[in-house]
Every structure is written in C-alpha cells, then in structure tokens.
Amino acid sequence: MKRFKNILIVCDEDGNVDDALDRGLWLAQANGARVTLFDVVETGPKPLKYAFAGLSETRAAEVETQVFDHYQARLSELTKPFEEAGVPVSIAVGAGVGFIEVIRTVLRDAHDIVIKGARQSPDTGRFTAGIDLHLLRKCPCPVWLLKADQPKRTQRILAAVDPDPIDPTRDTLNRVTMELATSLAERDGAQLHVVNAWRLAEESTLRSGRFAMADDEVNAILSAERESAGARLGAFLERFPNIPTSTHVVLEKGYAGEVIPDYATREGIDTVVMGTVGRTGIRGLFIGNTAETILGAVQCSVMTIKPPNFLTPVALDD
Hey, how many other C-beta atoms are within 10 angstroms of the C-beta on 69? Predict the structure, then answer.
C-alpha cells in the first residue's frame, strides 16, 4: 500500500473516530505519508453566523469564532499519537456541507485516500444516508469507511473483482483492488478472499417452458459460461504471483449485488475492497448500480476505488 502519501482522516464525532485515527496512523507509518485531520462545521450553504440571528452581529461573530476554536482544539488533541510516532500531521476545519467540504479538501490538497469512521444504522449496522454514502459515491480518491464493530486489524478481506481484459477502466479497477487488498492482508496477516460473481444472461428465460430449450442445452451453455469466467479470473490472478497460497479464490454464481454481501456475511468478512464503475467521463454519474447495491447491503468496513477518469460532481468553485 505504498501508493498513499497524503492521507485525509475525517474526524467527525458522529463517526468511528478512534478506529479511523488508528488506521490512519498505521497507514501513514507504512507509507511514510503525511496526514491531515479534518472536520467540518456543518453550516449548510450559509456562513455559521446566520444561525445566530437572535444575537447582535458582534456577538454572533464571537460565537462563530468560539465554535471554530472548539473544533481546532479538538483536532489538535487528536494529533498527539501522530506527533509521538514522528508522522507529519496537520489539522484543518472546513465550514459548509460535510461531504462537499471533504471532497473540496481532497481536490485542493491532492489527498490520495480518505479514511473515516462509518455512521451506522443502530438497527441494521449498515451505512446510513448522509456524508458516508456521498463520499463513497462522489469522492475521486479511494475512501475507506470503518465500521465500529469490526476488529482493529483486518482478519478476512474480500477483494471483489470482475476481470474484463478488453475494458481498460474495469481492468484498472480490478488491478488496484487486488493491490490494495493483498497489501492490507499482508500487513494485517489477514485471510484474503478473491470473489468474482458470474451468471448466464437470460438463464431464467432459456429455462422457461415457453422457450422450448432442453435443460441439457441450457446446462451446457451454463457450464461453458462458468468455465469462461474461471479462465478470465485465472488469467487475471496470474498477474499477482505473490498472493498468499492460502487465498480463497471463489466463483459465485449470481448477481454481484447479491452475491458479494451474502458471501461477506457467510464468511465473516470484515473488509470489502471494491471498485465502483459507472459511466465515466460525465460529471455527476457517480457509481455503478451493482456497487450501490453492495454498499447498501454489506455490514462490514469498505474501501472503494474510483476509475482514473472519474469526474466528481463537486467543484472547488461551486
């Protein structure tokens, strides 16, 4: 994981801050990286002082300053473990809409990964709407969301891949997914699972009584499709000769949006590493439907990777 040199840790109090700081420190030491601790004063589209309309202008300005001082003092306290470890660390406080300010900071300061404690539903443990999902959808650099109920160090990592050698965007995402997942597994001594979901398009139609295709014909087509998927996965993994021999390489039949969360739950996966593919090159189209479905269903930590030509809908001059 030597690719990360400029780490942004989002330290909002509603997220799992302790684990985000722990992971950020670990990653910075592993990469010789610098770190910025960041938080956002949620003001919406207007300056904070407009929230204090019942006060005089002078008093409203004083309260605004005190709020920012509070945020900066809190972040300053959180820098101590980094300073003691000799990791270059700075703090920054933004103001506005949370996810927008995080992404603007990424754009402005060229951060190469965002680490954040996840906001979770108390009932389901899944990601909640708000800053987390916005970041997963719209942040141009990798985003690592850490669930609070996961181990401090990963134990079982799932790399979700979909090899397609004729699609350069998908190929790049698969490669980076494997690089990050294998590096993380090596660092933590974790078990690596490489999962590829495959299916036969229109299988249900072919098996329909109206279609008049014999089961043995459909089964032959199905077998050929599985063999093809296995061959693509095998050829892809040949590019990673140093993956542990204990790696679980799995072909799972079905839609990826269903297969990946089910496998993660069944095997006790604590971190999923995955690419997010949608239509690229068009600002505002953030994420593929499959990735969106997976993110809405998994109950573990997630690291997401964008295509190299991804365009965030957030701009510095908005």
Answer: 11
Give the E-state strand segments of the chain in sequence order.
Answer: 6-10, 34-42, 89-96, 113-117, 143-146, 156-160, 191-198, 248-253, 271-275, 301-305
Least Cα distance to 185 among 260, 244, 265, 118 occurs for 244
Which residues fall within 8 angstroms of residue 222, CB to CB, at 6 or more apart? Answer: 200, 203
Among the listed ranges 156-170, 202-216, 222-236, which one has the minimum average pLDDT value? 202-216
Residue 288 has pLDDT above 60, yes or no: no
Strands (E), 67-155: 89-96, 113-117, 143-146
What letter does residue 51 receive in the DSSP assignment? G
**pTM of the entire predicted model:** 0.86
Q: Looking at this protein, which amino acid is placed at residue 210?
A: R
Structure tokens at 254: 């079905």
Structure tokens at 84: 């003691």
Residue 224: helix, strand or coil by DSSP?
A: helix
Please write down the HEC assignment for all residues of 249-297. EEEEECCHHHHHHHHHHHCCCCEEEEECCCCCCCCCCCCCHHHHHHHHH
What's the rounded Cα separation, in Å, for the pair 97 and 15?
16
How many Å separate Cα 298 from the centre of its chain? 12
The answer to whether 302 touches 120, Cβ cutoff 8 Å, is no
Only one residue has tokens 């799972």, namely 252
The dihedral through the CA atoms of 286, 289, 291, 296 has a sign that is positive
Q: How far apart, in whole angstroms, are the C-alpha atoms of residue 290 and residue 299?
A: 16
Under the banding of pLDDT at 50, 70 and 90, the label for residue 97 is confident
Tell the residue number behind the tokens 């294998």, with chain if given: 182
* Helix or strand (DSSP H, E) at 176: helix 168-188
Structure tokens at 314: 């957030």
